[in-house]
């Protein structure tokens, strides 16, 4: 349980998966220079083969290539949205927890107000305000995801605030600002970072959901959500591959990132450290 | 003078931990406050260190009545009282090296330039070696960490020192070493001491006089 | 031969015999090493030898970080994965009659260091070794009453039928002097002393003959220390063996039959408590320094600090702090008559 060695297989398989996926989305588009939009109706709905490992879709486009491009867009949306949400959530949570009183009450009511609207509904509302594109989707996902981080960070700060080391800093002449920035914030950053990593797959799923509903990215753009959406009609005619591969690519990073985050969480666990204290 | 006058304090206004506690420490004097655990003596120590605002009562520090607590207290007043807590593990920011931990009050008060000099003087006084100063709290023992916490409390040269069960977790030799370090500092600076604890033998040996918690409370009142 | 005589005799034998015949726990050459990142090693415990008889309390004393808690964890198989242990720690078999069969000879004796996790979990912890924890409040489940926790432990550790469990739980509470009226309370409703007794009651349910108490008095006030220690002594007088791990010399003085002083991972002196705390005093300079640091004695610290367990000297680890050290101390002193020192002190004048 506390033995770092038992983490090895999980750590390596997860890291390798994330690494391969990242390499693919970063290197394939600039290197192969193929047009993932190229339509070839003579080759539509071909099953997986050596030439097209993932098969082709109903417009004869190579699915492997489209999946790579789709994953690229989905990962970009996931990463940027998670980053924005984490920064906003950490700032709000830290301010509420460290300052307390009136600031805390106002900020937390704001969080409650946002939380009272269903996630997807709020997300749809935000995308509906703009023309379809990558940035509205990122904004929509970020707006709905900073809430949990704000809560986590606030409760962490609240529990840290009563520790004697904060008393010691106050007694040593530290200002409120210094206590927050030098002692409390660094202590919550690992937690916030963990929340951010776990948020990436969640944000990807959100993007897919919006796209699947036809509200996300423009339908010609290859995102994982769009790919699954476009494949619906083919699935009814017995062509499984246009659905299966984008679906797998949605699940695979989720599992791998969860694996990495699990190892990270165990590292944060203070028990491991205290066991080494003699 | 450090005067606590009919102080009522706690964490819930309707049910304070104690009511009407009074205690006076003269300049340069060392007073041991004895009481069982959970009686409220640590809360009184926090009031005296300006870390806990009492529900009622007065704290007069060197003739000036304290009107604000924690961050709101004037920095001069706050830093005139050094505090050492019972558990060094929770009293030390786990991310700082021992050297940074000791120098932190100097940095927080804009006196960074003095850090190297004070560190060089304080580390041997509390028995810390240079290689220990470079380590973080989880790499040292409780006793070594408490030595650093004492140095941190002394780094701003406080006129008053409050030790709340400073040695309860420590072995006999480390206890004697820390008490000796406190007494050396007091002999040099004439600082007053309020030592809170439950070990009668220790506080009798250490302090000019000891006070029982019951003697601080008004007659006929039980906490 | 009456009981008191027998006890004295046993205690004497335990000090002198190579391996006490009736030892409940017999530890030989217990060594624990931690491997750290970067290939550094930490010598937490080195070559610990001691015996513990039934009806006897051995206090293991030393500064924090001297390895005494690691030793306790090793006996319970609770060390982290990067620890390597060697040596033997024979625990007398459950059915062994201590008067006729010794731990060394007992056919069903268990080597705690060689036993696998399954054996330790199913047959040792709680059943043959009871652990009195350092912080009882953290040891109890906050959301269940003391009675519920006692009954659950009865169910887990004994074959007591369902209907008799309530009674068994109450009996265990009684043995630990936990008042029956408080059984239906939750841990946070208990004072520190009662929480300590509740934890002790849990430790006693399996009717283990060996109790292991890890700093049971830390953070308690003096009255409570006295009471806790008195209760532990009572369990010893009922015939259990108690290994008390503590830095509190005053507590050790009140309860121990013998004292083992640990310094830098080694037991440097093993002496009968009456001699150790009495006018004769300890013979190892470190043990003497530790005792002299007490506020009721000279209140003078031992100069310097203990060495790093990751960087121990070749010879005597105490030599750099020792007033009696000579060139000879660059070689490691073998324990002789319970003292590992080249220049042991004579009896006090």
TrEMBL record, chain A:
Keyword hit for Transmembrane: yes
Any Gene Ontology biological process: transmembrane transport
GO cellular component, one term: plasma membrane
Entry's transmembrane regions: 73-98, 110-128, 184-205, 244-264
Keywords attached to this entry: Cell membrane, Membrane, Transmembrane, Transmembrane helix, Transport
Gene3D superfamilies: MetI-like (1.10.3720.10)
Topology in membrane: Multi-pass membrane protein
Compartments in which it is found: Cell membrane
Domain ABC transmembrane type-1: 71-261
Domain of life: Bacteria
Family of the protein in this entry: Belongs to the binding-protein-dependent transport system permease family.
Protein name: ABC transporter permease
Organism name: Streptomyces viridochromogenes
Classification of source organism: Bacteria, Bacillati, Actinomycetota, Actinomycetes, Kitasatosporales
UniProtKB/TrEMBL annotation, chain B:
Domain of life: Bacteria
Domain spans labelled ABC transporter: 2-223
UniProt keyword Nucleotide-binding, yes or no: yes
SMART domains recorded: AAA
Molecular-function GO terms, alphabetical: ATP binding; ATP hydrolysis activity
Residues that span the membrane, as ranges: none
Keyword set, alphabetical order: ATP-binding, Nucleotide-binding, Transport
Gene Ontology biological process terms, A to Z: transmembrane transport
SUPFAM superfamilies recorded: P-loop containing nucleoside triphosphate hydrolases
InterPro entries membership: AAA+_ATPase, ABC_transp_ATP-bind, ABC_transporter-like_ATP-bd, P-loop_NTPase
Protein name (Swiss-Prot/TrEMBL): ABC transporter
Taxonomic source organism: Streptomyces viridochromogenes
């Amino acid at each position: 349980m506390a033995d770092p060695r038992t983490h090895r297989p999980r750590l390596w398989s997860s890291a390798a998966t994330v690494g391969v996926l990242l390499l693919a989305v970063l290197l394939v588009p600039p290197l192969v220079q193929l047009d993932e939009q190229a339509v070839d109706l003579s080759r539509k709905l071909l099953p997986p083969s050596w030439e097209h490992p993932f098969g082709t879709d109903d417009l004869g486009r190579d699915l492997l290539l489209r999946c790579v491009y789709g994953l690229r867009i989905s990962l970009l949306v996931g990463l940027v949205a998670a980053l924005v949400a984490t920064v906003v959530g950490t700032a709000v949570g830290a301010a509420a927890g460290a300052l307390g009183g009136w600031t805390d009450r106002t900020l937390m009511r704001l969080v409650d107000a946002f939380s009272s609207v269903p996630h997807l509904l709020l997300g749809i509302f935000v995308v509906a305000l703009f023309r379809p594109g990558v940035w509205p989707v990122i904004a929509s996902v970020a707006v709905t995801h900073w809430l949990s981080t704000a809560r986590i960070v606030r409760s962490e700060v609240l529990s840290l605030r009563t520790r004697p080391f904060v008393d010691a800093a106050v007694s040593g002449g530290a200002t409120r600002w210094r206590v927050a920035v030098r002692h409390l914030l660094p202590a919550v950053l690992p937690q916030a970072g963990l929340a951010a990593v776990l948020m990436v797959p969640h944000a990807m799923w959100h993007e897919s959901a919006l796209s699947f509903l036809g509200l996300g990215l423009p339908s010609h753009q290859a995102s994982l959500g769009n790919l699954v959406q476009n494949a619906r009609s083919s699935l009814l005619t017995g062509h499984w591959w246009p659905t299966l591969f984008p679906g797998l690519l949605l699940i695979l990073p989720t599992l791998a990132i969860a694996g990495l985050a699990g190892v990270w969480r165990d590292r944060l666990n203070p028990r491991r450290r205290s066991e080494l204290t003699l | 003078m450090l005067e606590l006058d009919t102080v009522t304090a706690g964490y819930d206004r309707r049910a304070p931990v104690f009511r009407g506690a009074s205690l006076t420490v003269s300049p340069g004097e060392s007073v041991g406050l004895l009481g069982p655990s959970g009686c409220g003596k640590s809360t009184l120590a926090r009031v005296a260190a300006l870390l806990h605002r009492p529900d009622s009562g007065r704290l007069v520090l060197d003739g000036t009545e304290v009107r604000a607590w924690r961050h709101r207290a004037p920095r001069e007043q706050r830093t005139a009282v050094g505090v050492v807590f019972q558990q060094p593990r929770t009293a030390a920011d786990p991310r700082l090296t021992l050297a940074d931990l000791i120098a932190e009050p100097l940095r927080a008060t804009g006196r960074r330039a003095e850090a190297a000099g004070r560190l060089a003087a304080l580390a041997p006084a509390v028995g810390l070696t240079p290689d220990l100063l470079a380590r973080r709290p989880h790499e040292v023992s409780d006793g070594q960490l408490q030595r650093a916490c004492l140095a941190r409390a002394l780094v701003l040269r406080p006129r008053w020192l409050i030790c709340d069960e400073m040695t309860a977790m420590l072995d006999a030799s480390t206890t004697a070493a820390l008490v000796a370090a406190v007494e050396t500092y007091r002999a040099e600076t004439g600082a007053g001491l309020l030592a809170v604890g439950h070990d009668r033998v220790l506080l009798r040996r250490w302090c000019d006089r000891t006070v029982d918690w019951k003697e601080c409370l008004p007659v006929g009142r039980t906490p | 031969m009456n009981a008191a005589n027998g006890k004295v005799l046993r205690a004497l034998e335990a000090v002198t015999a190579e391996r006490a015949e009736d030892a409940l726990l017999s530890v030989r050459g217990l060594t624990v090493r931690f491997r750290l990142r970067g290939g550094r090693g930490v010598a937490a415990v080195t070559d610990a030898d001691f015996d513990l008889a039934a009806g006897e309390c051995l206090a293991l004393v030393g500064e924090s970080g001297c390895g005494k808690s690691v030793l306790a964890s090793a006996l319970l198989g609770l060390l982290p994965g990067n620890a390597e242990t060697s040596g033997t720690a024979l625990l007398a078999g459950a059915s062994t009659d201590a008067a006729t069969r010794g731990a060394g000879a007992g056919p069903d004796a268990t080597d705690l260091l060689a036993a696998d996790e399954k054996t330790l979990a199913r047959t040792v912890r709680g059943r043959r070794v009871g652990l009195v924890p350092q912080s009882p409040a953290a040891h109890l489940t906050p959301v269940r009453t003391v009675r519920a926790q006692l009954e659950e432990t009865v169910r887990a550790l004994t074959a007591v039928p369902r209907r008799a469990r309530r009674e068994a739980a109450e009996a265990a509470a009684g043995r630990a002097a936990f008042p029956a009226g408080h059984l239906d309370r939750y841990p946070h409703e208990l004072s520190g002393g009662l929480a300590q007794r509740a934890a002790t009651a849990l430790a006693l349910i399996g009717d283990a003959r060996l109790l292991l108490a890890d700093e049971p008095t830390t953070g308690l006030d003096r009255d409570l220390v006295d009471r806790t220690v008195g209760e532990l002594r009572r369990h010893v007088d009922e015939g259990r063996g108690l290994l008390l791990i503590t830095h509190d010399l005053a507590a050790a003085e009140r309860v121990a039959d013998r004292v083992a002083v640990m310094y830098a991972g080694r037991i440097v002196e093993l002496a009968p408590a009456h001699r150790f705390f009495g006018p004769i005093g300890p013979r190892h300079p470190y043990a003497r320094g530790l005792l002299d640091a007490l506020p009721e004695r000279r209140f003078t610290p031992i100069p310097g600090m203990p060495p790093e367990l990751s960087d121990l000297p070749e010879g005597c680890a105490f030599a750099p702090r020792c007033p009696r050290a000579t060139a000879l101390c660059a070689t490691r002193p073998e324990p002789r008559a319970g003292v590992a020192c080249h220049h042991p002190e004579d009896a006090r004048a």
